[in-house]
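Quick one, tokens below:
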């Protein structure tokens, strides 16, 4: 292998973040198209990457074979004619064409083995290619057993739960929990749920980071405003040893998930989706129990003190004059027949 080929292969491995199992020339077209177009194909994991030619390090198209529902050949294996396979995926139907049935059988063997994670029983391969296929299957099983989805935050409370287990905790138990190093716009939701969240609450933002249907893959759902109106777009981000590869026509690799989010914010002119939970501002006093009376007691009535009325100044003056100048032969006799009265009478007789 030349130095340039090694550099190209290393670059492809970095961009795709998937191991290479099989490669070669093939032709491909959609069922709606008339003519086949030549590509150089690489089967990495369960994804078929297509390049303009063998010297290119950036793929121009890829097929997610995890969505494969059937793979049918249009001609028997024993005929010495080009082999055409019709691949029915969930979202589209494509045809692959190989120059001879031997190459076509090897492509069929690797595609079905990587998708089903087992070797089909009707293969017609020589011992050498069969050994290589068994080795590729072992590597793919080991890769899937060690990889897992990124840590997930709780699902939003307004979405249905994905499990009916009575022991599972509801999302409301930890509504503010976000796994370490994960943006606030990271939600454990499907594509349809993410699009519904963005459509229902555009004021919260327009970018949601979520898990993909494939292991070790993120997905980004964006609600982007265009002159035709808002449109929904979905992108995939692969976790690699060198960082995070954003799978575009020209793939972009960044060092962290925050850089992924920053990239989409700049390119889409949208902001991350962040919910705002309502909070209360008033504490209501609960009603008192019926057995407790809350009626205010009546104030006690305090009797008023009886005080002799004050004499007016004129009355007081007349009384003073009366005491100072009594009329002749008249004396003031107290009501009480005390000893003073007796003494007074004795003095009068003298």
């Amino acid at each position: 292998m030349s130095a340039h080929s090694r550099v190209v292969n290393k670059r492809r491995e970095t961009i795709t973040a998937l191991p290479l199992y099989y490669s070669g020339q093939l032709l491909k077209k959609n069922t709606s198209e008339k003519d086949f177009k030549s590509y150089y194909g690489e089967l990495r994991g369960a994804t078929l990457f297509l390049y303009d030619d063998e010297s290119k390090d950036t793929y121009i198209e890829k097929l997610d074979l995890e969505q494969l529902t059937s793979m049918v050949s249009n001609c028997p294996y024993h005929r010495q004619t080009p082999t055409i396979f019709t691949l029915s995926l969930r979202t589209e139907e494509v045809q692959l064409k190989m120059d001879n049935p031997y190459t076509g059988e090897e492509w069929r063997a690797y595609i079905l083995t990587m998708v089903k994670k087992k070797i089909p029983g009707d293969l017609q391969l020589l011992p050498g290619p069969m050994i290589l296929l068994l080795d590729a299957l072992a590597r793919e099983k080991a890769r899937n057993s060690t990889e897992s989805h990124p840590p997930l935050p709780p699902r939003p409370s307004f979405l249905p739960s994905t499990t009916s287990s009575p022991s599972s905790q509801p999302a409301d138990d930890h509504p503010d929990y976000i796994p370490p190093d994960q943006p606030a716009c990271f939600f454990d939701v499907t594509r349809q749920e993410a699009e519904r969240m963005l459509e229902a609450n555009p004021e919260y933002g327009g970018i949601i980071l979520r898990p993909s249907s494939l292991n070790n893959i993120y997905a980004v759902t964006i609600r982007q405003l265009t002159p035709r109106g808002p449109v929904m777009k979905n992108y995939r981000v692969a976790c690699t040893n060198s960082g995070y590869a954003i799978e575009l026509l020209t793939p972009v690799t960044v060092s962290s998930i925050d850089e992924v989010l920053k990239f989409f914010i700049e390119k889409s002119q949208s902001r991350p989706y962040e919910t705002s939970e309502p909070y209360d501002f008033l504490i209501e006093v609960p009603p008192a129990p019926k057995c407790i009376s809350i009626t205010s007691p009546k104030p006690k009535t305090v009797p008023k003190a009886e005080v002799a009325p004050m004499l007016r100044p004129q009355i007081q003056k007349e009384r003073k004059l009366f005491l100072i100048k009594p009329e002749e032969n008249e004396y003031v006799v107290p009501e009480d027949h005390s000893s003073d009265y007796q003494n007074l009478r004795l003095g009068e007789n003298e």
